Amino acid sequence: MPLESNARIAKALAQRGYNAEREAVTLLAGAADPAAAVAAAVDHAPDDALRITADHVRDAIADTDRSGVAPDETGESPVETKGSGAEDAARVEPASDPTTDTGAAAAADAATADTSATGGSAVDTTARDTPTVDPAETPDTERSRDPDLRDLSVGNDMTGHSTGTGEYSDFVTTFRDRYERLSKILRGRVNHRPAEAIANMPGGSDAAMIGLVNDVRSTKSGHWLVELEDTTGTFPALVMKDKGLADVVDEILLDECVAVEGTLADDAGILFADSLHFPDVPRTHDPGGADRHVQAALISDVHVGSDEFMADAWHEFTDWLHTPEADPVEYLLLAGDMVEGVGVYPNQDDELDIVDIYEQYEVFAEHLKEVPADTEIVMIPGNHDAVRLAEPQPGFNDEIREIMDVHDARIVSNPATVSVEGVEVLMYHGVSLDEVIAELPEEKASYDEPHKAMYQLLKKRHVAPQFGGHTRVAPEERDYLVIEDVPDVFHTGHVHKLGWGKYHNVLAVNSGCWQAQTDFQQSVNIDPDAGYAPILDLDTLDMTVRKFS
C-alpha cells in the first residue's frame, strides 16, 4: 500500500529540482519506502537529467531491494504541506436571474469570509498567514484522484496552423469568414437581404440586413447613422433617437457583425431602423457539467520576472494544492502572461527582476513544478509572453515549449476552447478588454467590473471584434476569434482585476493576477487584484475565490 500521495512525491522531487513522468511518480508513491525511493531515483538519474523517468525509478527500486534496505515503518512524509481553512473562501452565488446581463457575483457567505464580495469584483478578504501542517500530524491518506476518470480536450487551437502572410487578400479572407459564420447565427432572427438586393428594392419596403459595422456616427439632429457591409456592398441604416435604441447603439463596435431591421426610405437610399440585433448567447443556453465532484483552478497573469511577482503568494497557492482540501482540484487553467516579458512597455527594464526572457520562462517552470504532478494543466499565451502580439497567438515556439515542459502541460493558442469533463471553457487572455472598456460607457464595461466587458464579447460572439485599434489581429484563413459555439465558462485575464458573473448562463471569470502594483501600473491608475485563485466546481459551476496574499 503506498505510504505517500502522488502529490507529495511530486513536490519532493520538485524541491530537488526535478520534474517527473506520471508513471514515475506513481511508482515512487507505491514503493515500500517512498522517501528512500525518491532519494535513490535522484541518485540514479543522469547528471544532466531534468525529469525523473519510470526507468530511473525501476532501476533505483531494484538496486534498493538488492541492497536489503529495510523500509521506513513510520510512513511519514519529508514534505511539509500548507493549507488554508474554509474561512478563507468566498463563495460565488448566481444572480437571481442568471439569464440576464445584470448578473454579478452575490455577496460572499458570511460564515466563510471576513467581508463580502459585491458586484462580482475582487473579494476583499483579509490576508492571513497560511498555517504550516506538521506531516506527522497529517494522516497519510491517498488522494482520491483517478486519472482514468478525467476527460480533457482542446478545440480551436491554431498552433502550427497559421497561414497568413499579411497580404491584403489574407485580411479579406479573415473578414469574409467572420461574416459568414456570425451571419449564420443572425439569419434565424431576421429576413436578411444582401446590400445589393436592398438597393434595388422599392422605397417603403420592409427590409433587414446583416453586415459588419463599417461606420457609426451621429447626425446633427442627434440620430445615428450605421453603415453595414456584407459581401455584396454597403448600405446605410439610420437609427432615430426616438426609437429607444440608444443603449443598443452605445454598445456597437466597428467591425462587429449585427443585424438591422426596418423600413426603406421613399427613395430607397437608406434603411430606417426599427431594431438592432447582436449574434448574442441564447437565453436558453444550458451549460454542461461533470458527472463527479471535480474542480479547476482558473488563474492568469503570473508575471514571473517582474520585481513585483508575488512569489510568497504563489508558494501558498501551490502548497494549498497539496492539501486534502484541494484534492478535487485536478485541473489548472492558466490564461496567459506566464512571465513579465521584455520591452512590453516604456522603461520596463527598471521593474524587472530577471532581464533575460528565457531565464524568466526557466524560473516560471520551476514555480510550475510546485503544482501537484498529477494535475492537468492547460496554458495559453498573453501579450507579455514571447509570441507574436497579433491574435490569434500560437502556443509558443519549440524552444520555449521545451523549457515549460512541466507535468505534461498542454500549451495551446490564445484563444482556445478547453472541454473539461463536459464543461466547455473558452480561454482568452483578454487584450481586447482594454478596447471594449475604452469604447463603451462605464456602466457597460469597466476595469472595476471586468466581467461586464466580457459580457459584451459574448454578446458579439467574438473575442476581439474591433480591428485597427489597440488589439492587433493576424489574418488567417479562418477567424479563430469568433465564438462560434457558446461556452459554459469564459475565462480571461490581462486587466489584473478580479471579477465574475453570469451572462445568459455563461459564467464569465476574470481571474486577477500574481503581480503587485508596478510603478507603470500606478502611473496609469491600475490597482491590481493579486494573489487570488478562483476555484470552479465543474459539476455545479459554482465557484470559490481563494486569496493567498
From TrEMBL:
Residues 297-494 form the DNA polymerase alpha/delta/epsilon subunit B domain. PANTHER family: DNA POLYMERASE DELTA SUBUNIT 2. Its EC number is 2.7.7.7, 3.1.11.1. Pfam families: DNA_pol_E_B (PF04042). Keywords: DNA replication, DNA-binding, DNA-directed DNA polymerase, Exonuclease, Hydrolase, Multifunctional enzyme, Nuclease, Nucleotidyltransferase, Transferase. NCBIfam families: PRK04036.1-1, PRK04036.1-3. The keyword rRNA-binding does not apply. SUPFAM superfamilies: Metallo-dependent phosphatases. This is DNA polymerase II small subunit. GO terms for biological process: DNA catabolic process; DNA-templated DNA replication. It catalyses: Exonucleolytic cleavage in the 3'- to 5'-direction to yield nucleoside 5'-phosphates; DNA(n) + a 2'-deoxyribonucleoside 5'-triphosphate = DNA(n+1) + diphosphate. Heterodimer of a large subunit and a small subunit. GO terms for molecular function: DNA binding; DNA-directed DNA polymerase activity; single-stranded DNA 3'-5' DNA exonuclease activity. Residues 63-168 are annotated as: Disordered. Residues 140-151 have a biased composition (Basic and acidic residues).
